[in-house]
Amino acid sequence: MKKPAYKKIILKLSGEALEGDRGYGIDPLVCISIAASIKEIRALGVQLSIVIGGGNIFRGLAAHENGMDRATADYMGMLATVINGLALQDALEKVGVPTRVLTAIEMRQLAEPFIRRRAMRHLEKGRVVIFVAGTGNPYFTTDTTAALRASEIHADVLLKATKVDGIYDKDPNKSPDAVMYKKITYLEAIRKKLRVMDTTAFSLCMDNNIPIVVFNMLKKGNLKAAVLGEKIGTTVTANGKNR
Prior knowledge:
Elements: E1 8-13, H1 28-42, E2 47-52, H2 60-65, H3 70-94, E3 99-103, E4 112-113, H4 116-124, E5 128-132, H5 142-152, E6 157-162, E7 167-168, E8 180-181, E9 183-185, H6 186-191, H7 199-207, E10 212-216, H8 222-227, E11 234-237
Parallel strand pairs: 1-2, 1-6, 2-5, 3-4, 3-5, 6-10, 9-11
Antiparallel strand pairs: 7-8, 10-11
């Protein structure tokens, strides 16, 4: 069996990944499908943690653009990530994967508070750790949360799951002539304002030398391929080369 290219992994999932074809909310069947994929890669012996967004339930930035106070809107978005994290935990445990949800905003009846060393201990024990409630602060995205948690636990890679095949020079859903990058540097991604992740997230990964792999989660087998280091999606590194 081929060995994984990375031992400690942060998987960034958007909230939209849980909605399926509904366009809103959570599809339990989609959650089970994602859980099955996660179970498969956990069986490779890797330490896996997940940062999940909340856009399928509430988008803080969109609410702010429509007149809501930005901090209030962001806190509401953080609560949406907690709902998604609990749904994913339920699906993972249904397929036999031990899981812990760690939240940046304390809510003891629902999840453990985020403590860095506790998170690392859970990973060492073979549990999948789901980080929710973002960083616990407004004005930061869940992409930045993923980069921050990856830095804190010394992850080998940040896997950014999307609905497209990688990073493009423009939106492939709007421009049929969009060109996908196979490899790109952090600085190029920042300079070209490629919005697959925000600038803060790219900068954190650059400062801590954490490669980013952007890939299509909807294609069966892609998550495992990314973990095995196969050439899928777009790889973002300091020199624009695969690890």
